[in-house]
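Quick one, tokens below. Sequence please?
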């Protein structure tokens, strides 16, 4: 039987990118794209968050949580552009990447923390939107090595550095 530390370092599932959005400027509509370039210096090319080595260079949310959020609001699954995250991924538990480096396409990312909802979610989703998002807002990540991310790309934990 594996120990908890061993289990925390084992993630056999591979997810996939099913949606990509960029936010060109604050408050502007999200642009849905099929691929993006990402680098530690520029974050996601075309996105408003361009801070080098920031903790929120890229945001990810689980596809499976779109239905959960919608359900809590008595609605169908929520459209990703409403939530303003960069990537929607399916088939992998993003919280299992806590404290880890992981690959999305050819890009190496590092988990930096949960992507907590902001008060704008109440406006975007209606009454109760903020609380429906709690625990379902996804994660933030830092870009460690540049690459391209496309719809359909694999999402998987990177081997641990020794």
């Amino acid at each position: 039987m594996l120990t908890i530390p061993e289990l925390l370092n084992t993630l056999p599932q591979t997810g996939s990118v099913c949606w990509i959005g960029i936010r060109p400027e604050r408050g502007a509509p999200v642009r849905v794209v099929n691929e993006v370039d990402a680098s530690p210096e520029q974050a996601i090319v075309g996105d408003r968050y361009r801070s080098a080595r920031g903790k929120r260079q890229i945001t990810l949310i689980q596809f499976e949580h779109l239905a959960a959020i919608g359900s809590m609001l008595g609605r169908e699954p929520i459209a990703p552009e409403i939530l303003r995250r960069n990537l929607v991924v399916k088939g992998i538990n993003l919280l299992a990447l806590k404290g880890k480096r992981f690959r999305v396409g050819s890009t190496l990312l590092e988990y930096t923390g949960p992507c907590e909802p902001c008060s704008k979610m109440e406006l975007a989703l209606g009454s109760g939107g903020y609380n429906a998002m709690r625990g379902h807002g996804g994660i933030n990540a830092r870009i460690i090595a540049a690459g391209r991310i496309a719809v359909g790309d694999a999402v998987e934990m990177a081997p641990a550095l020794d």
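The mean pLDDT is 93. The helical segments are 4-8, 63-72, 80-83, 120-125, 129-133.
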